[in-house]
Amino acid sequence: xxxxxxxxxxxxxxxxxxxxxxxxxQQDGGRRRFRLGVMGGTFDPIHHGHLVAASEVAAELDxxxxxxxxxxxPWQKDGNKVSPAEHRxxxxxxxxxxxxRFTVSRVDIDRPGPTFTADTLRDLRILRPEAELFFITGADxxxxxxxxxxxxxxxxxxxxxxxxxxxxxxxxxxPETGVMLMEIxxxxxxxxxxxxxxxxxxxxxxxxxxxxxxxxxxxxxxxxEAHGPGGGLGGRRSQDAPxxxx
Length: 246
Description:
single chain; alpha/beta; Rossmann fold; 9 helices; 15% strand; disordered N terminus
């Protein structure tokens, strides 16, 4: 596999409204608030399940835009090995670049300390005061929402949308008006399985976007024998490094 993949040039620090979505909203006479989906996650790595979930929710709820927000320091995974935030951010940029309604925000990465959903939503409400927020997350994570920081304020900041794979028992959480649940077929894909496949030198083509497959191979992500900044999470490929059949 070649190492010639160029570094992504797209940098999204704030969440800018896509021109197409803006035009659609203006044609509506401004009567409807801008509907902004917020896809939060570790994205280690981002995969097609995340992208399909965002696309399906956007279509079902008529969202004008979906912003992907990679977590900075996931509080739930304290003590677990997580790839450096910049790698996860750049993979998310690569994966979403082809969809004009998808954007990426650094609000969680650039904020010091653990990442909490309440802080994410507060920051986005400051950046996009005109928008109605729809927070998209896995239904399994949503089942733990009562343990989240400032949980009592979350329902007032966004409509929550829990996505899950078909056949998973959907557990009702939170107030009836504050949570929606949707089945997404592609949610059977998991980041944990993708990492395990790379570690076992198995392919992840068609599980994650092509550009992300190449990024993982170039930066030797998820290979325990790779050594570099972050312990195999950012080193250069050596001449005798194994080829990653990602």
